[in-house]
Specification:
Non-ribosomal Peptide Synthetase Peptidyl Carrier Protein, Chain A, about 55% helix
Length: about 90
């Protein structure tokens, strides 16, 4: 799981074209909303979900599903463990 978490942090930063915040991203850090340090928006969510589909083969066609999965990096890792064929 630590490798997956590290990979997801890199994927999110690259897909959203963001710099890593000071002190790095925490696994349980909120990714969206007023408390999020990355200031991600809906376009970032789309870019991240496309990158996830490309890398892990997991489609998130529903915006509610995407929102839930992208709550935090740890939550996204759990979502992928359940749905990504390559991680089972």
């Amino acid at each position: 799981m630590p490798d997956l978490i590290a990979d997801l942090k890199t994927l999110i930063l690259e897909a959203a074209e963001k710099s890593e915040p000071e002190g790095g991203l925490r696994d349980d850090e909120v990714l969206f909303g007023p408390d999020a340090r990355l200031a991600l928006d809906s376009l970032d969510a789309l870019q991240i979900s496309m990158a996830i589909q490309q890398r892990y083969g997991v489609r998130m066609p529903d915006s509610k599903d995407t929102r839930r999965a992208l709550t935090s990096i740890a939550h996204l890792a759990e979502h992928l463990k359940l749905h990504a064929p390559s991680l089972k």
